[in-house]
Amino acid sequence: MTDPFYQGTATQITGAGLKQAAIIDLNGTVVGDSNNLPVANTEAARLISDYDNPAFAQTNGVVMGGIKYTTVVANNASIYGKIGPNGLSGMVSAKSVSHVIIGIYDSSIPSGNAANEVEKIAEYFRTNGV
């Protein structure tokens, strides 16, 4: 079940040019999404686990919305992945105190801009204990 605050936040992310967005709590529940990013329970659980073991994400990639991304950044705060022969599309995720913010982008927005949008929300959440 989505929450209006998190739903609005996900919509803010797609309003900045990302294709899809979702916010999940650390139990793996989608609390907000924009443009129907399908986050399977297994995908959410694996992503949350990857923050505790970034080397696993780096080695095995990340699956989100049924799409496997090659991991390009993996640490305890952020996990990014790219797809396609030129790597112009991908996913960015960032962990806050109690949530993971996920953004999916395509070639219409530079990867750095996509990462900045997601990281900005994660930092706001961290600063406010969310």
TrEMBL record:
Keywords: Actin-binding, Cytoplasm, Cytoskeleton. SUPFAM superfamilies: Profilin (actin-binding protein). The keyword Cytoplasm applies. GO terms for cellular component: cell cortex; cytoskeleton. GO terms for molecular function: actin monomer binding. It is found in: Cytoplasm, Cytoskeleton. It holds the Pfam family Profilin. Belongs to the profilin family. This is Profilin.
